[in-house]
């Protein structure tokens, strides 16, 4: 199958599920708090539903993809994102908002394993690493789009979500037409994989690293925009620009596959985890300085997308016989960590304030640098790309 025919719709589907349906929530949260009269603790609980739904759906998606192939789950992800965004846009209260968040968050869990499987099924082996990292970087394009939308539509967060829903529907139609039906290419056959992680060498460090990184990033995704709004005298476009910077620099994370190949997985992981920890600490000390907040945003965006790409490559390498499981396990544990982190962030901010809380989450990121893949022979790395 032609590289662009699968990768381009994949990038857009990841953009609308991760960028619009999931991570745009933190950008629009202050306006939603005002409209729906939510406290920081309530908004933290609502935010944790994104990750909770993700935890459930990525397990479901991994199982179904492993048994049936990728097409059904890719289409389901688009439908879930569309319904979630639509409900958020028309929500009259926090209960309907919570339902919309569950559906929107669930779409991200549905999309990750099947696209990993689709790449392993329909893209040539020497191009699979490149395809995986570029589809993963679709998150950044979605974040940029959500930031631009906030600048143009502020403070109409409901209209913003309705526009996102329409865009998601168009992307869903594109993917419906682009993804081959199972068995459509006679020379290829989807092979059922092994769902067990027991006895898989290297799975334990991967699990703990993913969980710790999830905790460390939750506060930034959910409360960074609220933090700088409370700490500095910023205009609406400057606040939205903060989000755009996260997305723009996140595109650089698409090159994680190249760095893994050249410098090794261990070095790439340590560099990424150290950078993501630094972004929270920088923001905690300089929330009122526009240049430093944008520096923090750029560092976070680049390192987050970079790290998810590293986890993706690491996971596929550990679960080498099952690409969907290799993506599902680290991304699931990343989300479990974000559930815990989002709940704790809302609680800590209410008790100690933003500065202390962001320092704490930065320190958790520092701990994550101590957990990572061991150095391996470069020949092995090249073979698994």
Explain what this protein looks like in three dimensions:
This protein is mostly helical and 385 residues long. The protein has one domain: Growth Hormone, Chain: A (Up-down Bundle). The protein contains 15 helices and no strands. Helix 1 runs parallel beside helix 3. It is globular and about 50 Å long. Keywords: Cell membrane, Membrane, Transmembrane, Transmembrane helix, Transport. It is a multi-pass membrane protein. InterPro entries: MFS, MFS_dom, MFS_Efflux_Transporters, MFS_trans_sf.
Task: Please tally the β strands and state the result.
Answer: 0
Helix residue percentage? over 70%
Number of domains: 1
SSE string: HHHHHHHHHHHHHHH
The span between the termini is: 18 Å
Q: What is the beta-strand fraction?
A: under 5%
CATH architecture classification: Up-down Bundle
The CATH superfamily is identified as MFS general substrate transporter like domains
* H/I helix tally: 15
Coarse shape: globular
Radius of gyration: 19 Å
The name CATH uses for the topology is: Growth Hormone, Chain: A
Low-confidence stretches: 183-193, 377-385
Coarse structural class: mainly alpha
**CATH class group:** Mainly Alpha
């Amino acid at each position: 199958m032609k590289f662009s025919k699968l990768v381009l719709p994949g990038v857009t589907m990841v953009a609308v599920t991760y960028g619009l349906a999931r991570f745009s929530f933190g950008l629009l949260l202050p306006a939603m708090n005002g409209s729906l009269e939510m406290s920081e603790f309530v908004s933290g609980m609502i935010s944790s539903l994104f990750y909770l739904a993700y935890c459930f759906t990525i397990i479901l998606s991994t199982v179904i993809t492993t048994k049936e192939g990728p097409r059904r789950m890719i289409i389901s992800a688009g439908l879930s994102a569309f319904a979630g965004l639509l409900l958020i846009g028309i929500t009259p209260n926090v209960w309907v908002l919570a339902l919309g968040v569950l559906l929107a968050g669930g779409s991200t869990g549905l999309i990750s394993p099947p696209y990993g499987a689709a790449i392993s099924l329909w893209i040539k082996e020497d191009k699979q690493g490149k395809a995986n990292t570029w589809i993963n970087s679709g998150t950044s394009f979605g974040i940029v789009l959500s930031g631009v939308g906030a600048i143009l539509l502020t403070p109409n967060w409901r209209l913003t979500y309705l526009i996102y829903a329409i865009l998601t529907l168009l992307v869903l139609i594109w993917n419906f037409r682009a993804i081959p039906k199972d068995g459509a290419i006679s020379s290829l056959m989807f092979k059922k994989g092994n769902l067990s992680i027991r006895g898989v060498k290297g799975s334990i460090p991967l699990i703990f690293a993913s969980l710790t990184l999830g905790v460390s990033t939750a506060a930034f995704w959910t409360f960074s925009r609220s933090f700088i709004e409370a700490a500095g005298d910023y205009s609406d476009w400057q606040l939205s620009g903060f989000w755009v910077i996260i997305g723009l620099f996140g595109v650089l994370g698409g090159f994680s596959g190249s760095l893994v190949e050249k410098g090794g997985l261990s070095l790439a992981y340590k560099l990424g985890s150290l950078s993501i920890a630094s972004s929270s600490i920088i923001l905690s000390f300089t929330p009122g300085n526009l240049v430093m907040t944008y520096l923090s945003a750029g560092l976070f965006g680049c390192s987050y997308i970079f790290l998810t790409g590293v986890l993706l490559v690491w996971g596929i390498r550990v679960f080498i016989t099952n690409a969907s499981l290799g993506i599902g396990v680290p991304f699931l544990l990343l989300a479990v960590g974000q559930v815990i982190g989002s709940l704790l962030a809302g609680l800590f901010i209410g008790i100690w304030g933003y500065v202390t809380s962001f320092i704490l989450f930065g320190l958790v990121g520092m701990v994550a640098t101590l957990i990572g893949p061991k150095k391996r022979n470069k020949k092995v790395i090249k073979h698994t790309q």
